[in-house]
Amino acid sequence: MTGGRQRARRGRSHLRRRPGHAVLAALLVVAAASGCAAEAGDTGTGQGAKLQAGQPGAPADAPAAGALGTRAAQAERAKLAQAARAVAAKKWGLASTPLAPPAPPAVKPHITTRKGFEVEGQDDSLPPVFTTVPTKDKVVFLTMDDGDDKDPELLKMMSELNIPYSAFLSDYLVRDNYTYFKDAEARGVTLNNHTLNHRYMPGLSYEEQKREICDQQDIIEKQFGKRPRLFRPPYGNYNTDTLKIAKSCGITAVPLWAEEAFPDHMEWREEDLDLHPGDIILTHFRGKKDWKGSMPDLIRSVMKTVTDKGYAVARLEDYV
Ligand SMILES: [Zn+2]
């Protein structure tokens, strides 16, 4: 009980000192208050069990202790954000409003290499290769590869819908228009590594793979200011060298995918042909010249599947 209250106090003072972190601080306050309320329920009657202002179940007009105001403001913000998303969903022709994801986990899950995806001489120091993030949250992750089609409508649509996604870029397709991806990055898209030239990694020598992976790390850092942590090998093919090299130039995880989305259908990796909590969905920056639709068509299609099945799209980098 007291621990929770102290945490809440610290959260408030932190909020005053550093307004830039107000949202994070607000989340911490809510988390602390919730934990405290649960304990109160367990202890039953008695003075200690009384609800404090700012805890779930406390009367709305209880003396303002800071946490209540923050929590109410946060709930109000979430409500407004979802209302804005509903408007955007209508504007962009989505079948239904995308669901809001839960708050990101306070601690990222421990991820290990999926069974059957190990390399020769596999050891735990190599970046894990996985298709689904271990989580109970009803979320999936949207990832977009290559970088060929650069449709400004996509950036606008995703910003207005407030749907997070992660890009895996191959420089040979991106270098004619870094500005497009700078715009994406400014809108919150994380730019990750998908090699320089999209070659089949196991067919290359160690030195060639190193150039494909590590030079792309350098280019992304130089062009966009951040060195990627995530790497996806072209076609999902890799060997021991690939993972060793990726690790040597700053990669910590190798997310593959559980589903691949197209404008007119979904391809499933698992036999049940269904989504699962933490599934990573692959799709591509492609346009009408490549497949039957535009990027907005693709998003409408994949979001229909995701929302109909009761999932929200969360940010991959919040979990990995
Ligand atoms: Zn690719």
Automatic annotation (TrEMBL):
EC number: 3.-.-.-
Source organism, top-level taxon: Bacteria
Pfam families reported in the protein's UniProt record: Polysacc_deac_1
Any GO molecular function: hydrolase activity
EC category: hydrolase
Record's keyword terms, sorted: Hydrolase, Signal
Transmembrane annotation, as ranges: none
UniProt KW Isomerase keyword: no
Protein name: Polysaccharide deacetylase family protein
Organism this protein belongs to: Streptomyces castrisilvae
Lineage: Bacteria, Bacillati, Actinomycetota, Actinomycetes, Kitasatosporales
